Amino acid sequence: MKKWLSLALLLIIVAAAMIAGCNQKPPEAEPPPAEDPIEEPELEPEAESEPKTVRRVDPVTVVINNHAAARPQSGLQEATIVYEFLVEGGITRLLAVYDTLPEQDVTVGPVRSLRPYFAVQALEHGRTVAHSGYSQRTKEKISGLGIKEVTSATYLWRDNSRQAPHNLYTSMEKLYSARGTSDVTEETVTESTLPDVSEAGPAIEVAYKDHNLVSYSYDEEGELYLRFVNGKPHKDRETGQQYTAKRVILRQNKHTTVAGTDLVDISLEGSGDGVLYEGGRKYPIHWEKSGGKTRYTHTDGSPVDIRFYNTWIQVIR
Fold first, then answer.
1. What's the Rg (C-alpha) of the chain?
2. What b/e readout covers 273-292, taking b as 16+ CB neighbours within 10 angstroms?
3. Where does residue 78 fall: left (phi above 0), alpha (psi -120 to 50 degrees), or beta otherwise?
């Protein structure tokens, strides 16, 4: 009997212990440590281009020698526009347009002889063109155009440290003096907004001949195209600096070989296609000459703005 009482008491104790255990609350878990708040980076507003104030004058043009013996040239960086035209045998010649007032006088050259299409192009830029002469054929073809020719020794000089005919020079001051008086206007310009449709355009190659390869490479830091001739930097004789361009235009014009010679005629009339390189991108464009002026437009019809800094125009077949 005692044994059964003892067993019953033991069962009661065990049951009471189990009930007590079920009524206990589990310990509360510690909350996870608070995470540091994520700081969103502040987005810097896109830098707007700085307005550039330019002191404009009536333009003047000059034919620049581009034979290998004429390089390095002088004063091309200060030109607002530089055209490169084929002349003969794969050799090219340049037409530089000046219409700004420099802080100091700038030597320009070497100056070379005129071709008919140089005179026609000069008509778009004030009619005054400095050159070293021309052939009878050119004289006849430009007769009646009404250009103002600058060929006098008053405005041109020979540099005896170089061999003729690659040693004839002028200067911006003498060019403006030969042109005559001009009003000076201040123009404030900023970089234009370019269309969204474009392709990468960090490099440009124009092969006028296997011995005359022009190329450009885009410098992202300077936001300019560096110019090369036959793989070598095209530099200025006076400063030693490589020539650069804010933009480069490839313009297709009709070229015709002059019978019995290696000369070419280049038609600057009508319209055609081209490519604009700017900001490391390339854009298809259209050009049209009407009213004596060549205008460039994007495919959406908006004008190509070439007022800001300088432009090299490569005239190609």
1. 36
2. ebbbbbbbbbbebebebeee
3. alpha
The residue among 270, 315, 276, 280 whose CA lies nearest residue 299 is 276
Structure tokens at 194: 């370019």
Residues paired with 81 in a beta bridge: 97, 311
Nearest to 80 by CA among 153, 187, 159: 187
Residues 194 and 196: their CA atoms lie apart, in Å, by: 7
> Would you state the structure tokens that stand for residue 77, as one six-digit string?
């960086």
Task: Tell me the two tokens of residue 99.
Answer: 């219409």
Cβ count within 10 A of residue 174: 22
Question: What percent of the chain has a predicted confidence (pLDDT) above 70?
Answer: 85
Alpha-carbon 265 to chain mean position:
27
Chain Cα centroid distance, residue 317 = 21
Please determine, for residue 11, whether its predicted confidence score (pLDDT) is greater than 80.
no
Return d(Cα 20, Cα 12) in angstroms, integer: 12
Distance CA 99, CA 81 (A): 9
pLDDT in tens, 24-75: 544 454 555 444 444 544 544 445 567 888 899 999 999 999 999 999 999 9
* Paired tokens of 150: 């600058």
Provide the residue type at 5 as one letter.
Answer: L
DSSP symbol at 84: E
Half-sphere exposure for 237 (CA within 13 Å, toward CB): 19
Beta bridge partners, 169, equal 157
pLDDT (tens digit per residue) in 131-179: 999 999 999 999 999 999 999 999 999 999 999 999 999 999 999 999 9
How are beta strands 244-245 and 224-229 bridged, if at all? antiparallel
